[in-house]
Specification:
Number of strands: 12
CATH topology of the domain at 5-193 and 229-252: Rossmann fold
Number of helices: 13
CATH superfamily of the domain at 5-193 and 229-252: NAD(P)-binding Rossmann-like Domain
Shape: globular
Radius of gyration: 20 Å
Strand content: 5-15%
Distance between the termini: 39 Å
């Protein structure tokens, strides 16, 4: 059998979509490593439970002994590193976990991988890749008329989350330049699609609206993000892994810059069409809340490099991708119910309770 790829964080939102996409598109085996914290959900990979091409391991990237054992036993041809704490609001309330996982965890994984890679035969060592999945948030915030982020844009993180991801980007770069580890880095824009944990903008709006709960919104709703359908992101990562130049960074975006107010309005309009509420339009549920500290105003990805070098462009428009996403949540109410644990409800209460007293001015939105 072909050597597998080792995917860290493969039970999370983007990671699970990638594992499913990888096996469907390539037929090649995957070893998935996930700590199954609040956003990691093994149910996302339920369709692979009896598939011999998939091997799931419950474990942490901070566990060096486990990493050494997995690398020695499975001899992967690549490591695809998704594992990360990833929610800005959580990082504001508890930054220590972000430093632990995103910085120390990435360091531990790099060191284990470096040792494994150094011991490979020449042909295997030459073909090996370490692909680090990062975010556009490391670049900071853009003015409304500023050019979009390119790969040459300086890192200027503004939240504990983005600072921890920027640190991990720098570690990956350093392990290439210092030790020769064959790395690739991708920086993506806001993802959306199936299996998205319902604390992020789009699934939170869908789930709360269907439950008749307030739609908590930040500021004036004019925070701009570039939106990328998760399955397009997975296809892009496959291209970078197969054909990307070692040591390079590739920005992955959807060419869909939209203010959060438009996202909320569009989600509500789709729900009005697909699951109308007798009580009235879903926009009635929008509740203005105080903006969060250090809220970046605009992100935008210039994805011309990956198109020029690797021929990748997103297949979904925002309209087609969002329609598929809303339909998925409507069709998977059981999944939504099961991920909404007591801890998750406590988190939403902690984050939004202090903001909920603000007067509603006009529609805004929690950022993704």
């Amino acid at each position: 059998m072909t050597s597998p790829v080792l995917v860290t964080g493969g039970a999370g939102f983007i990671g699970s979509n990638f594992v499913l996409d990888w096996i469907a598109a390539t037929g090649e085996p995957v070893v998935t490593l996930d700590a199954l914290t609040y956003a990691g959900n093994r149910e996302n990979l339920a369709s692979l439970e009896v598939d011999p091409r998939h091997h799931f391991v419950h474990g942490d990237i901070l566990d060096r002994a486990l990493l050494d054992e997995l690398l020695a036993r499975h001899r992967p041809r690549a490591v695809v590193h998704f594992a990360a704490e990833s929610h800005v609001d959580r990082s504001i309330h508890g930054p220590a976990a972000f430093v632990k996982t995103n910085v120390e965890g990435t360091f531990t994984l790099l060191e284990a991988t470096r040792q494994h890679w150094a011991g490979l035969a020449e042909a295997e060592r030459s073909a090996f890749r370490f692909l680090h999945v990062s975010t556009d948030e490391v670049y900071g915030s853009l003015l409304p008329d500023a050019p979009a982020f390119t790969e040459a844009h300086a890192h200027a993180p503004n939240s504990p989350y983005s600072a921890s991801k920027a640190a991990s980007d720098h570690l990956v770069r350093a392990w290439h330049h210092t030790y020769g580890l064959p790395v690739l880095t991708t920086n993506c824009s806001n993802n959306y699609g199936p299996f998205h944990f319902p604390e992020k903008l789009i699934p939170l709006m869908i789930v709360n609206a269907l439950a008749g709960k307030p739609l908590p919104v930040y500021g004036d709703g004019m925070q701009v993000r570039d939106w990328l359908y998760v399955k397009d992101h997975c296809a892009a990562i496959r291209e970078v892994l197969a054909h990307g130049r070692v040591g390079e960074t590739y920005n992955i975006g959807g060419w869909n810059e939209k203010p959060n107010v438009e996202i909320v309005e569009t989600v509500c309009a789709l729900l009005d069409e697909m699951r109308p509420d007798p009580a009235g339009p879903y926009l009635r549920l929008v509740k203005h809340v105080v903006d969060r500290p250090g809220h970046d105003r605009r992100y935008a990805i210039d994805a011309r490099k990956i198109e020029r070098e690797l021929g990748w462009r997103p297949e979904e428009t925002f309209e087609s991708g969002l329609r598929k996403t809303v339909r998925w949540y409507l069709d998977h109410a059981g999944w939504v119910e099961r991920v909404q644990t007591g801890a998750y409800r406590d988190w939403l209460s902690t984050n939004y309770a202090a903001r909920s007293q603000a007067e509603a001015g006009h529609v805004g939105a929690v950022p993704g």
